[in-house]
Amino acid sequence: CTMASKRRPDESRVTEKKRKKKNCVETAELTSVVEDEQLKRAVREAWSQRTHYSQGDLELDCHPFPHCIIRNFLGSETFVENLQRELLGLNFHEKSNDLYKFKQSDDLKKRTEQHIAGLRAALFGRFRSWLGGVLGVELEPTVDISCARYEYTDVLLCHDDELEGRRVAFILYLVPPWQSSDGGTLDLYTTDSNFQPQSIVKSLVPSLNTLVLFEVSPVSFHQVSEVLTEDKCRLSLSGWFHGPSLERPPRHTEAPVQRSPHLPRDETLLLEWVNPVYLDISYQEQIQEEFEDSSEIQLKDFLKEEKFREVSEALRLAQIQWTKRGPPNKRCYEVASLDTLPQCVSACWELLRSEAFFLLLSNFTGLRLHYLCPADEDDEEKDEEKEEKKDREKELSTPVCCGELRRWSHGCYTLLHDGEAARAEYALDLVLPFCNWQSDFGGFTCYVANEEDEELLTVYPEDNSLALVYRDKETLKFVKHVNHKSSSDSTNNSTSRALYDFSFVYYE
Description:
Blueprint: H1 2-6, H2 9-23, H3 37-49, E1 53-55, E2 58-61, E3 67-70, H4 77-88, E4 92-96, E5 100-105, H5 114-135, E6 145-150, E7 155-159, E8 166-173, E9 186-191, E10 197-204, E11 211-215, E12 222-224, E13 234-242, H6 268-273, H7 281-294, E14 296-299, H8 305-317, E15 322-325, E16 331-336, H9 343-353, H10 355-365, H11 384-396, E17 400-408, E18 413-414, H12 418-423, E19 427-434, E20 445-449, E21 455-459, E22 466-471, E23 475-479, E24 499-507
Antiparallel strand pairs: 1-2, 2-3, 3-11, 4-5, 5-6, 5-7, 6-13, 7-12, 8-11, 8-13, 9-10, 9-12, 14-22, 15-16, 16-17, 16-18, 17-24, 19-22, 19-24, 20-21, 20-23
Helix pairs in contact: 3-5, 4-5, 7-10
Keywords: Cytoplasm, Dioxygenase, Iron, Metal-binding, Nucleus, Oxidoreductase, Vitamin C
Subunit structure: Monomer.
Region (Disordered): 1-20
């Protein structure tokens, strides 16, 4: 007793703190699978041979690429419950771009909550060395882990996870009882001979305390399908074990889309189709001023009302042949076969490709999409060399366009991708929608600055509203995933609704 009183008052607090610190990590008991040397050898053998293996709570399947499922990963139910509780108490941030929409926690690398810290130590300690042994690879102690909450309409679209240093991806599910009809499955894709994803061949339904892991490779394409349940939360921990990356073949480049010059059609086509308001020269000048100011404009009620109604009706009722456009790591929507279009839809297509329309667009935008356009004032120097150069350029650069008639329904989207960024150029985008659409369905077009997440502009589809956007080499665009709300609209309990649009790109 007297000895203790000789201690300096703050000394006892220090020891107490140390003791507290020692107790603050709750040890995570892992499944006995990890302790079994014989099983580890068997898994290693199966993984290297790319064969199926199953034993107790562990299953290894190599189709469409090697992935391993370990049920009852954590040995204690109480630990799992406490881990869930700690995770749900974290701050989550809404994350949304072309590829995903979900809520993510702050980085878990330095979190000190007992069960989070305990799981982190077990995963990147004992389990990492077990996994390294299975793969025959030295995995680094790099900690890369976060927590995600997926709720109604949240999604993570098709991607391969490849990033320098990532060797094995993992997901630990901490979900309530879950069925495939709830969505949120982990979908695995087959790939073609160009290492491009083709179709989903396996869907793993989340299950409490189940760990899924797969090797990150040029063929490890997967997605988290959209969550369809409105009253459950898909909580999971995910991250990567780092190590030497697998060799990657050169990225496949797609053939460029065919571009065509205008069709020789005169202004009678415009008089027949376009709202006369837009054919007024002084109004065109007003539009051009506004467009040159902001590089974008929406022209409402663009087509004559009866023409718009006729095309809308035909799109809904006609026997048009639609083909799905992929691959899913770049896009997923349907495009019409032009030779199956009914007459009025075909005529609308011709309008957008006509010489008269190229000239009209020039008047709206000030771009030189027709040789009759006045040149910029700067170009009016009467220097003969300049004139000759311009003549040569004119021969070389005939304004051209390419276009599609698209159909968007639940599950459609486009993604930003490397090939697109490499090929970006100055262009005028045109979209003319036929729809009865709400902005919370998705299906809107976002423009973003290359290499940056910042959205520059969002164009929402609006009936008979012609959207024009001029983009430069640093601007990319994507169409946001069309979510479940589009097919479960309470005002219209009929089948899934679709958005139709003409999408054209014009080049000077």
